[in-house]
Amino acid sequence: MGLFGRKFKASKVTTLANLAISRISILKKQHQVRCSLSRSDVTQLLNLSRQEDALHRVELVIKEQNTVDALTMMEKYCHLLIEKKVLIKTKGECPEELAEAISSLIYAASRWGEFPELHELREIFTSRYGNEFAAQCVELRNNCSVQPKMIPKLSRHHTGSGKRRDMLNDIAADCGINLCAEDETCHISQSKPEVNSENECAKGEEGS
């Protein structure tokens, strides 16, 4: 058992989880707006036949969407902490039912800058379950319980060209724009009237 021992208070975890949920709600809205704006920028570049520039710009769309996805997972895990708080209080070891949630939140904290509640949760779980447990999550050692889908969402590496092109194709399809192949001189044309393309694109942005 960690440093907290019998003095450990699950209510502190609940309070922090609730505060984290509130912060996540704000952050999600911010990143959703950024994602939508970046998507609009990509569309404008495509309409100007600047496909190469659009391919570079689309990385920001992917980054913002990944952040939104990661925040959604974190929000779910915080709700689970609140729902299963009794397990945290009564079990000295990390409860199996919460292993993924706790491990993933510890990992997320190691990748996130300004998020006081998340960092405090990490400190609490490190004290509760030990430094080795926390290190296993942060370093993604074998048999750690971090949700695999969260790892690429919080990656600091540049997005591969294949994923960027896939996203570019999706945006172009939503807006009715025909893309040229990678080895062709690019003269982008719209398969629909411009007004219709803008309407379709707006729908894509709203749904993103």
Explain how this protein is built.
The chain has one domain (5-207): Up-down Bundle (Ferritin). Helices cover 69% and strands 2% of the residues. The chain has 9 helices and 2 strands; from the N terminus they run ααααααααββα. α2 crosses α4 (99-111) and α4 (99-111) packs across α5 (116-129). The chain is elongated. Residues 1-6 and 187-200 have low confidence and may be disordered.
Short note summarizing the structure:
The chain has 9 helices and 2 strands. With 208 residues, the protein is mainly alpha-helical.
The biggest sheet amounts to: 2 strands, antiparallel
Quick check: average pLDDT?
86
Lateral arrangement of strands in the main beta sheet: 1-2
Cα Rg: 21 Å
Distance between the termini: 44 Å
CATH topology: Ferritin
Low-confidence stretches: 1-6, 187-200
CATH architecture: Up-down Bundle
CATH class: Mainly Alpha
* Number of H/I helices: 9
Percent range for β-strand residues: under 5%
Count of domain modules = 1
Shape: elongated
Count of extended strands: 2
Please render the helix and strand layout as text.
Layout: H1 10-47, H2 51-83, H3 85-90, H4 99-111, H5 116-129, H6 131-138, H7 150-153, H8 161-174, E1 177-178, E2 189-190, H9 194-207
Antiparallel strand pairs: 1-2
Helix pairs in contact: 1-2, 1-5, 1-9, 2-4, 2-8, 4-5, 5-6
InterPro entries: Ist1, IST1-like
Protein name: IST1-like protein
Organism: Solanum tuberosum (Potato)
List key phrases describing it.
single chain; 208 residues; mainly alpha; Ferritin; 9 helices; elongated; disordered N terminus
